[in-house]
Amino acid sequence: MTDIAVSIKGLYKIFGKNPKKALSRIKQGMSKQDLLEKHNHVLGLNDINIEIPEKQISVIMGLSGSGKSTLIRHINRLMEPTAGEVIIGGENVVEMSKNQIRDLRLHKASMVFQKFGLHVHRTISENVAYGLIVQGMKSDEAKKKSHKWLVRVGLEGFEDHYPSQLSGGMQQRVGLARALATDADILLMDEAFSALDPLIRFDMQNILLELQEELHKTIIFITHDLDEALRIGDQIAILRDGEVIQQGDPQQIILKPNDDYIIDFIKDINRGRVIMAKSLAEKGRKNQGPSVNFKTVLEDVLPIIAKSKSQKVNVVDDQDKFIGVLNLESVIDAMARPNIEVSETYR
Amino acid sequence: MDFLFKFPDMGRDNLRDFKKDVDTSFLEFSGEYGEAIEKAFDPLLYFLVWFEKLLINTPWPIILLLIGALAWFGSRSIKISIGSVLSLSLIGYLGMWQDTMSTLAIVSAATFLCIVIGIPLGIWMARSNRVQAIITPILDVMQTIPAFVYLIPVVMLLGIGKAPGLLATCIYAIPPIVRLTNLGIRLVSKDALEAADAFGANYWQKLFGVQIPLALPNIFAGMNQTIMMALSMVVIASMIGVAGLGIPVLRSISNQYLALGLLNGLAIVALAIIFDRITQAYGKRLQKHRYGEHND
Ligand SMILES: Nc1ncnc2c1ncn2[C@@H]1O[C@H](COP(=O)(O)OP(=O)(O)OP(=O)(O)O)[C@@H](O)[C@H]1O
Ligand SMILES: [Mg+2]
Fold it and tell me: How far apart are CA A301 and CA B138, in angstroms?
């Protein structure tokens, strides 16, 4: 098992005049709806428990208003929780002093924003260096470092431009470079690519994945886009109305959604292109038929199975080591949409 | 019936006593503290006198050169720079050089004072809604009360001369810079500030690195208005003994010198236009990158 970088325990956030009192009402079983209508308090986060493993991309997904931004802002305490704990490196962020929080933001966790959050009065190079300047680094050293990151995100030559002179995709690359420049281990990304066109978004996902292969940051990535979540997430937590309703391996969420809300979420994805052979491989003996890599998606497995006489293929890992067998029936099953009846059995 | 047509006032005697009480207590106050307050204004007075002498004693070609340079660095526009130098030359040619220098001195001193007090005040207002709620009505009063009305206590307190003139000018001219500093800081985008927070910026880093730079176009607009208002106080200030272009205007009113009054009035207008163009062009230059020459 990998180590846990961030551990969120029993986190509540209630917006309103008297959140503590509202919290006790919630704990006594009052619904979010009643709390809003009768007491005019908004239940933003409801008993969140998530463990974020180190050096992986953890996606938090949910529709608008589900509390994603609220949740991620508790990790570097841009928001004050009503109750609960956020543990980073053995320390509870909720109990940190002002200086400790500042240290956290300066060195341990940096952030990328949906609307980029660039400073329009600073050049691109100054924007990327912002975190370093705030740390107190000397300006030529900061400049050198920011140049390195600008090159990494493909913006060499734009050092002296201003944000308004760049396209959205380029601006967000500046945002990414700014966050990476501080060398923080944790990267908080709140719908970082949502404001971009689909093609640019795809590019940005590639940039992020490429960088991650080398940097191994702990990335907490917020999105409302399932395709994006599946593409980049090592694991996914799904948020609804301020509650985590399922979390785990993306493949498991698609194969075994435990809630109608999630079924609704995943019903339109192209399952053949998302589900991988490894998720369906069953224990068994290696057979005569062909082999596929464990990360092959079903769409690509299908023609191979169809040609195989036994209607089975062997699933192997990157080192060609046998993992299990995959048969046609389970492939077809998995590619069919789950429906409500199916999901009932998983409840 | 009588009751309806005569407003039930407090009565002549009571009223007289009331006014007398106010007057005597203010007189007592000014008798007791007037000197101390005057002392407090001394450094400003010295600065003003020194600056005025400096302007007057500097050879005129150097002043013209300085104004031209100021216009160039402010606006980066040849048109504005040459226009400023030409209009100042014309003013000098028409015999108003010395008065213009005196006016420049008091307007500069007043603007300086307004900036030094007004910007921190505006920042304070932007920080707290309570402070804003208290200061806004005071600014409203300062802007709407006729200048002659507050000349009375100012003169009672400080007498006649440059210091009360400076004070009166500042009372009149400070509201715009306070208001626009406050507004500018309040309008700074939440996203830019949140980014600063997320990267661990402290209070001063946020203030000087994000809020003030982003509010600068508004602060500049306030400064521009403050200069304009200070200039428009020149005639009134001359009533309490401030040297400058206002004095000949006053003289023209009492003696019906049309040409003299007109020329000096136009000189004030010319100064106003010069400063307005320079500060506005500078403000625009500050904003150049904000909204992008091109957006793709
Ligand atoms: N300051 C606030 N005061 C009151 N309610 C708030 C506040 N901030 C957020 N909320 C509420 O909390 C809920 C979650 O908001 P949040 O911004 O976290 O959602 P989100 O999942 O990030 O949505 P989006 O996809 O639109 O960004 C919403 O119902 C919102 O109305
Ligand atoms: Mg959000």
Answer: 77
**One-letter amino acid for residue A296 of the chain:** T
Identify from B188, B189, B191, B199 which residue to disrupt to test chain A contact, counting A C-beta atoms within 10 A and taking the largest count.
B199
Rg from Cα positions in chain A: 23
d(C-alpha A312, C-alpha A229), whole Å? 30
* Ligand with the closest atom to the CA of A32: 1
**Which position has the higher pLDDT, A205 or A262?**
A205
Cα–Cα distance between A175 and A191 in angstroms, integer?
A: 12
Give the number of C-alpha atoms closer than 13 A to the C-alpha of residue A9, restricted to the C-beta side: 11
Beta bridge partners of A238: A61, A246
State pLDDT tens for residues A146-170.
999 999 999 999 999 999 999 999 9
pLDDT in tens, A247-262: 999 988 888 888 888 8
CB B71 within 8 A of CB B81: yes
Chain A, nearest residue to B191 by Cα: A117
The residues with which A48 forms a beta bridge, in sequence order, are A11
Determine the 3-state secondary structure of A10 from DSSP. strand
B91 vs B102: CA distance, rounded Å: 13
Instruction: Assign domain B41-291 to its CATH architecture.
Output: Orthogonal Bundle (1.10)
- Kindly tell me if the per-residue pLDDT of B259 is higher than 50: yes
Banded model confidence at residue A347, pLDDT cuts 50, 70, 90: very low
Nearest CA in chain B to A180: B199
Q: Note the pTM of the prediction, 2 decimals.
A: 0.86
Point out the residue among B192, B202, B291 whose CB comes nearest to the CB of A119.
B192
Q: Please tell me the number of the ligand nearest to residue A73's CA.
A: 1
Local structure of residue A44 (DSSP, 8 states): E
Question: A117, B195: Cβ pair inside 8 Å?
Answer: yes
- Does the beta-carbon distance from A78 to B194 stay under 8 Å? yes
SS (H, E, C) A100-124: HHHHHHHHHEEEECCCCCCCCCCCH
pLDDT of residue B82: 95
Q: Strand, helix or coil at B110?
A: helix
3-class DSSP assignment, residue A224: coil
Backbone angles phi, psi at B289, to 5 degrees: -85, -10
Kindly determine whether residue A118 and residue B195, on different chains, have CB atoms separated by under 8 Å: yes
Helix (H, G, I), strand (E, B) or coil at A61: strand
Among protein residues, the one whose CA lies closest to atom 1 of ligand 1: A15
HSE of B74 in the Cβ direction (CA atoms, 13 Å)? 22
Sorted by where each starts, the structural domains of chain A and their CATH numbers stand as 54-81+97-265 (3.40.50.300), 271-336 (3.10.580.10)
Query: How many Å apart are CA A118 and CA A174, to the nearest integer?
Result: 8
CA nearest to B193 within chain A: A117
Name the residue with tokens 């400063």.
Answer: B275
What is the percent of chain A with per-residue pLDDT over 70, rounded to a whole number? 97
User: Cβ(B56)–Cβ(B174) under 8 Å?
Assistant: no
Q: How far apart are CA B235 and CA B65, in angstroms?
A: 27
Q: Which two tokens stand for residue B111?
A: 């603007």
Q: Are A13 and A76 in contact (CB under 8 A)?
A: no
Quickly count: other Cβ atoms within 10 Å of residue A72's Cβ. 20
- Report the DSSP pairing between strands A291-293 and A109-112: unpaired
Q: What is the DSSP letter of A331?
A: H
Number of helical (H) and strand (E) elements in chain B, helices listed first? 14, 0
What distance in Å separates the CA atoms of residue A58 and residue A69, rounded to the nearest whole number? 15
Query: Can you tell me the distance from the alpha carbon of A45 to that of A68, in angstroms, rounded to the nearest whole number?
Result: 9
